[in-house]
Structures are given as C-alpha cells and as structure tokens.
Amino acid sequence: MAAPSEELNCEDFSEFQEVLKMMRQIDDRIVHELNTTIPTASFAGKIDATQTCKQLYEALKQAHNTREKAIKSCINQSSAVVTKLREERNKNMDNVTLLKCLRKEQTHLKLMQSELNVEEVVNDRSWKIFNERCRIHYKPSKSL
What we know:
Helix content is 73%, strand content 0%. By secondary structure, the protein is an all-alpha fold. It has one domain (13-36, 48-133). Mean pLDDT is 85; it is low at 1-5.
C-alpha cells in the first residue's frame, strides 16, 4: 500500500488539505489493510505475517515522514511570507490591502500549523492499530 506522491500546494489551503487527505489514505485504510493481510490463527500458515507487517511498517513510516516534511515545508514558506508582509506593513502602516494580505497569510499559517496536530493524531491512531495487530509478528527497531 503506497501513499500517493503528491506535492503540496502551500498557497491554496483547500488544495493543501485535499492533497494531505490523499496522502493520509494509508492511515485511513490501515484497519482494512490489516484485516485483509494479517491472518487469524486458523490461517496463520498461509501468509507471511512478519513480512506483511514489516512492509506495512515501512510504508507507514515513509508516509508519516513524507507528510511531516511537506507540512513543515509549507509552514516555513508561509512563515517567510508573513515575515516579509510584516516588514512591508511596518514601512507602510496606512496600506489596508497589505494589512488584509498579512492577516490572510497569518490565518493560512495557523491552519497549516494546526495540520501538524492533526498529523500527530492520525499517526498515533495508525501506530496503535498497527501495534495491536502486528506486535506478535513484527517488532520494529526502537527508532519509532
């Protein structure tokens, strides 16, 4: 199960959220994936659960890292824009359009920062489910 390799558009928040949603498909489908790939005790001999859990672990880890980097990159870009707009605003306090742009970008930045919290919840849920189903089949290194 591979995560979509989409690029985040940091300027359009609705597109940003849509791409994140697509990138989170592996997390949204983890219960189904585990139910269809990890055997019950009666079918244990037919599927290599250790290999399946290892592959799922690697896919989850990669998806989480990719999303976190993408979100943080967008936050950094938006933060730089906010800083630039603040500097321009300080030079021209009467410019209402500049103030509106600054406020819009600050809101945009806050929304992106909140996605890091959403990401943490999504990741925690996925790892909990993974550990419940795979703990007897695969023990990843302690780097998680």
